[in-house]
Amino acid sequence: AAAAATQRPLSLRPRGLLTVVVRNARAMAVEEWLDGDLLARPDSRPALLYSWWSSSTAIGVVRAARRAGLPVIARAHGYDLFADQEVVGFVPFQSEIVRDANRVASVSRAGADYLVRLYPHSSDHVAVSYLGVPSQSRASPHPSGTSTRFVSCSTVVPVKRVGLMVDAIVLLLRDGVDVHWTHLGGGPGLSALREQVEARPELAGRVDLTGQLPPEGVAAWYRDNSVDAIVNVSASEGLPVSLMEAASFGIPMIATAVGGTPEIVDDTCGRLLPADPSVAEVARVLGDFARLPAGERDQIRDASRERWASRFSADTNYAEFGDLLASLVVR
Fold first, then answer.
1. Block means of pLDDT (10 residues each) for the chain, length 331 residues?
2. Closest Cα to residue 313, out of 245, 267, 240?
3. What is the C-alpha to C-alpha distance for residues 179 and 13, in angstroms, rounded to an integer?
4. How many Å is the Cα radius of gyration of the chain?
5. Distance set, CA 83 to CA 79, 120, 193, 200 (Å)
6. 3-state SS class at 271
7. Which of 13, 154, 238, 267 has the greatest count of CB atoms below 10 A from its CB?
8. Is 257 exposed, middle or buried (0-12, 13-18, 19+ CB in 10 A)?
9. What does the DSSP 8-state code read for residue 211?
C-alpha cells in the first residue's frame, strides 16, 4: 500500500500515464496470445509459466496464469526492479506482479530486499535466485610483462559510463602507470567512444575497442588474453553477468557499488568503487591495484575464481532454480 501510494502521483504525470498505458497494452497483447494459443489447447497446456523479466511481458503472463490457475514465476534484474532505473521514477504494475506471482526471483539479494521493503505483505513471494555461468576449461592466462591490462565488457550506452575509462586511463598514464585497456562490446555509443579515444594522442597503442562480440567470442577472448582485472563503472546494475564470467576465468573485479554488485565484488576478489565515482577516483583505485605486489594480485585472482565457484556456478544455481520451479508445480 505504501509503495502504491508513493507511485500514484508519478503515474498521473503525462509521461508516467503514457508509460502505464503503453505497458498495459503490451501486457494485454501477451495475455491475449497466451489465452488464445498456449493455454487454449489442452494438449499443450503448461505446468507453469515463467517470465525472464518482471516487465510488460510479465504482467500479461501473471494475469493469464492467475485466470488459468497455473503457477507463475518472474525473474527481476535491474531496470525492471529498481524505481531509480526507470525514466518515469517507478516500475509500472510492480505491486501486481509481486502480489500475484507465486515467486518473483530476484537475481540479487539487494533486489529481493528492495522488494520486501516495498511490499512487506507479499514478502513470501520474493526469493533470491542468482544467475550463473559455466565452468571454464582453463583460467585466463597469467599476466606477464610490465603493462597492467584492464578490460571492460558491456554495451556502450550512457548507463555504462564507458567514457569514464578513457579519462581514467589518461590520468594513469600521466601518473606514470604503464597500462593498457580493452573494451569488449559495441552499441550506439561506440562511434563516440572511438572519437573520444582518438582525440587523445597519448592513448595510441594503449586502448583496444573490439566492437560487438558474441558470448562465445567474449569467452574466447578471456581464454586467449591475459587480464589483470575487469572494470565496470556502470551507474546501475542488477548483478552483472559480465563480472560472473570474468570471475569464472579467475580475473579480479573492480566495479561500482551499485545494485547487487557488492554481492560478487569485495576487497578479497577485487575492489569496489563508489556508486558515482569521479574520473580521479577511478584512476586512483586502478592505480592502487596496478601497484599491488604480484603475490597479492595472485591471491585476488584465486579469490575471484572462488567467488564464482561458491556463488555463481551455473550448474549449482540453475539446479537450485529447477528445484524452485518444481516446488511451485507440485503445490
1. 50 74 92 85 85 94 93 95 86 94 97 96 97 92 89 97 98 97 97 97 97 95 96 96 97 97 98 97 98 95 97 97 92 54
2. 245
3. 48
4. 22
5. 8, 17, 28, 37
6. strand
7. 238
8. middle
9. B
